[in-house]
Amino acid sequence: MFTPVTAEFFHAPTLELSRKLLGQILVHELPEGIVAGRIVETEAYMGAEDRAAHSFGNRRTKRTEIMFGKPGLVYTYQMHTHTLINVVSGPVDTPRAILIRAVEPVEGIELMAERRGKHMPMKNWTSGPGKLTKAMAITMDHYGSHFSEKPLYIAQGDPVHAVSVGPRVGIGNSLEAVDYPYRFWETENPFVSKFR
DNA sequence: AATTCGATGGGCT
DNA sequence: GCCCATCGAATTT
User: Fold this and answer.
1) Which residue is nearest to nucleotide B6 (CA to C1')?
2) Which of A73, A89, A123 lies closest to A20, judged by CA?
3) What family does the Swiss-Prot or TrEMBL record give for this protein (predicted)?
4) What are the pLDDT digits (tens) for A135-180?
5) Continuous segment of H or E residues that includes residue A133
6) Amino acid A101 CA to nucleotide B6 C1' distance, rounded Å
7) From the alpha carbon of A101, which nucleotide's C1' atom is closest?
8) Is the CB of A53 under 7 A from strand B?
9) Nearest nucleotide (C1') to alpha carbon of A82
10) A108 with A33: CB under 8 angstroms?
11) Does A193 fall in a domain?
């Protein structure tokens, strides 16, 4: 079974934590069973100084409020018809966050299949930030919970051997921030959303 | 009050 | 590759 990491796990600089999250297990305990996926792709959003971040310039709204809170909090938001999930990072009042962009299914395959359609190949179930939230039944109801507490939490996984680094996806109008190397993924892992 | 736009994904051409 | 779904926030009227 899985055990949540402690809150101290999240007390690391944002870019370091982005790498450290690779290989950890994202777990959701549902009434009908457990779904879990190994994190294989993340992106760091560096708060007030990062034009691509929702909290750029310390912008504080009902949506971004959680980014100013403690590390390890869950920041979910809607992108068109999809829910995306982030790990809040940085000290309190330093509004940084890490987007979880892809996971590799490790448990609850049947439950994920029900949500993602049995006809679609498994590599398409969780290979993108909107896909994995649907596969794992993550919704806006999780906004503000903590990744060290059930039912939605992070558990320790196997170490990642090779990490690739590159620019973030889908932030084309963020001026100087477009090429910042804030995206991290497990090299060659087939569940990564995109290659460059 | 209305409009614009995005850290996206799926279906169709 | 193009189009659309349809959410919250910021900007404009």
Assistant:
1) A79
2) A89
3) Belongs to the DNA glycosylase MPG family.
4) 999 999 999 999 999 999 999 999 899 999 999 998 877 788 888 9
5) helix A129-135
6) 16
7) B7
8) yes
9) B8
10) yes
11) no
The CATH number of residue A131's host domain is 3.10.300.10
* A128 in contact with nucleic chain B (CB within 7 A): yes
Task: Tell me the nt nearest to A80, Cα to C1'.
Answer: C7
Which residue, chain included where needed, has tokens 């929702």?
A54
Cis peptide before A151 (omega within 30 of 0): yes
Asked if residue A79 is part of any domain, the answer here is: yes
* Domain count for chain A: 1
Kindly state whether residue A24 falls inside one of the protein's structural domains.
Answer: yes
Domain interval for residue A110? 7-186
Burial bucket for residue A118 (CB in 10 Å: 0-12, 13-18, 19+): exposed
Q: Quick check: is A107 in a domain?
A: yes
